[in-house]
């Protein structure tokens, strides 16, 4: 004697059908945008940038008396790694490879030249000038030529980026790049070039004013 097998009809709940249909619509929708199947959707749902910044306010004016005589262009590759104690890099830690490009200016502060530092003979044909040594300005990082090559972050760091106001901040590598560029400028011949250029500028200026002999020296 055979027992009839009862077929059990498992019907999908109504709410599940609605959710499934909605997911299917979203998948088709975003696939159409991604692969350009539905033309015009990218323009319809694309991002738009609006600049609502207020006007710039002039806070102060500073008179400049320095002569910018030379500028050096520098580039450095920063490899910054941060490790956590007792945790593997896959859980907590980061490593950023960053290419930093920037400039450093070398100048002579002519405002420090006093009356005793300039000597002119009676017939105004010879002049002697004593100037302060050339100095270096602050390194300036060029954002258009600086970029991150690669970023590696642990799981906790990635989760932290989700709740951070400034995710994937490159502030640490940028500061390090600026410091390294400044150190490279100190080791270069940038200040010597600035003094040479300043001497040439003053000699040409005073010769055009009728001076036959011009001597420029540098001191502390």
Could you walk me through the main structural features you see in this protein, from its secondary elements to its overall organization?
With 220 residues, this protein is of the alpha+beta class. Helix content is 32%, strand content 29%. The chain has helices spanning 14-34, 41-45, 155-162, 171-187, 190-208; strands at residues 66-83, 93-109, 118-120, 126-132, 135-136, 140-141, 147-153, 213-219. The strands form two sheets. Strands 1, 2, 5, 6 and 7 form a five-stranded antiparallel beta sheet that branches. It has a three-stranded mixed beta sheet with strand order 3-4-8, with helices on one face. The longest helix is centred in the first third of the chain and has 21 residues, at 14-34. The chain is elongated. Residues 5-9 have low confidence and may be disordered. Pfam families: DUF4230. It comes from Streptomyces machairae. InterPro entries: DUF4230. This is DUF4230 domain-containing protein.
- The H/E string reads HHEEEEEEEHHHE
Distance between the termini: 117 Å
Helices and strands: which structural class? alpha+beta
Strand content: 25-35%
Helicity range: 25-40%
Number of helices: 5
User: How would a crystallographer describe the biggest sheet?
Assistant: 5 strands, antiparallel
Give the tally of β-strands. 8
Cα-based radius of gyration, to the nearest Å: 33 Å
Poorly predicted ranges: 5-9
- What is the mean pLDDT? 78
Shape: elongated
């Amino acid at each position: 004697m055979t027992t009839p097998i009862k077929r059990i009809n498992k019907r999908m709940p109504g709410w599940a059908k609605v959710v499934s249909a909605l997911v299917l619509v979203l998948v088709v929708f975003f696939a159409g945008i991604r692969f350009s199947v539905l033309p015009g959707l990218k323009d319809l749902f694309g991002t738009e940038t609006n600049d609502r910044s207020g006007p710039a306010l002039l806070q102060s004016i500073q008179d400049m008396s320095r002569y910018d005589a030379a500028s050096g262009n520098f580039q450095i590759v920063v490899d910054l790694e941060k490790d956590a104690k007792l945790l593997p890099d896959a859980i907590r830690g980061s490593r950023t490879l960053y290419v930093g490009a920037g400039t450093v200016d070398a100048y002579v502060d002519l405002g420090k030249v006093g009356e005793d530092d300039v000597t002119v003979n009676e017939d105004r044909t010879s002049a002697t000038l004593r100037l302060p040594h050339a100095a270096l300005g602050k390194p300036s990082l060029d954002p258009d030529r600086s970029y991150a090559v690669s970023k590696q972050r642990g799981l906790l760091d990635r989760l932290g980026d989700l709740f951070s106001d400034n995710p994937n901040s490159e502030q640490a590598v940028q500061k390090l790049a600026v410091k390294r560029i400044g150190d490279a400028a100190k080791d270069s011949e940038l200040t010597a070039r600035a003094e040479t250029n300043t001497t040439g500028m003053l000699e040409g200026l005073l010769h055009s004013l009728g001076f036959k002999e011009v001597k420029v020296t540098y001191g502390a």
